[in-house]
Amino acid sequence: MITLDNATKRYGPITVVDGVSATIPRGGVTSIIGPNGAGKSTLLSMMSRLLPLDAGTVHVDGLDVSTTSGQTLARTLSILRQENQLTVRLSVRDLVGFGRFPHNGGRPTVVDREHIERALEYLDMTELADRFVDELSGGQRQRAFIAMVLAQDTDFILLDEPLNNLDMKHSVDMMRLLRRLVDDLGKTVVLVIHDINFASCYSDTIIAMRDGALIHQGTAEEIMTPEVLRDVYDVDIQVELIRGNRIGVYFA
Ligand SMILES: Nc1ncnc2c1ncn2[C@@H]1O[C@H](COP(=O)(O)OP(=O)(O)OP(=O)(O)O)[C@@H](O)[C@H]1O
Ligand SMILES: [Mg+2]
């Protein structure tokens, strides 16, 4: 379980995450949606201690992220950031290997290698494993970074816009993989996502943010309504039931 209590982030006089309190259940897919600038990435960064909180607390599996050691936290929680850049030239396999660092301190074992190969396979990156990361396409690079996060093999996986740059097939594969991690391996996945229909089809819980506040939390059935979506995005979105899923349809 992840517990947020009054989580707050300010930059100067501006409060960009404003007293967010929420409980994210263990063992599920939780999607965070909301317009650009709503505070989604800031909230995810605070959950993982990439950003310190200005007020409030975050607990992950009972650990206070502000006071838990980096190594303990890195064995509990992994995060994919929205922007990922490398300053050194690395092969894909070496990049993915960094995910094992919290477990082996830089001395890979047979078990680490198994995790690396499995993560490469999950992301359809085995054939590209010996390429340098700077020789990849945008979507391939995104998958390499996600493979690194999965190789970390933590109970809690936070992903900021994992579908960035992915084509339709790889987006569907990605969402199915996230479901498998939850359903088969008992992981807890929290992702930021702009595609409300992927959120609707693959999430157990959806959290909607706007202007730094958490304004709605519920199941897809509860969130995928024209009223809630208008509240979040200021757009009229028609919601259709297609094969049991609530799908938003919108036109310019
Ligand atoms: N380092 C910073 N200094 C000042 N303001 C910042 C900083 N980082 C983010 N912000 C502001 O905080 C607000 C929330 O940003 P955040 O990146 O969390 O939004 P987001 O919901 O992830 O948006 P997007 O969908 O565009 O990724 C924005 O208004 C942004 O301009
Ligand atoms: Mg963001």
TrEMBL record:
InterPro entries membership: AAA+_ATPase, ABC_transporter-like_ATP-bd, ABC_transporter-like_CS, P-loop_NTPase, Siderophore_ABC-ATPase
Annotated Gene Ontology cellular component terms: plasma membrane
Localization per record: Cell membrane
Alphabetical UniProt keywords: ATP-binding, Cell membrane, Ion transport, Iron, Iron transport, Membrane, Nucleotide-binding, Transport
An annotated Gene Ontology molecular function: ATP binding
Bilayer topology annotation: Peripheral membrane protein
Classification via SMART domains: AAA
Protein's UniProt keywords contain Nucleotide-binding: yes
A single GO BP: iron ion transport
Pfam families in the record: ABC_tran (PF00005)
Ranges of residues in domain ABC transporter: 2-236
Protein name: ATP-binding cassette domain-containing protein
Organism in which the protein naturally occurs: Arthrobacter cheniae
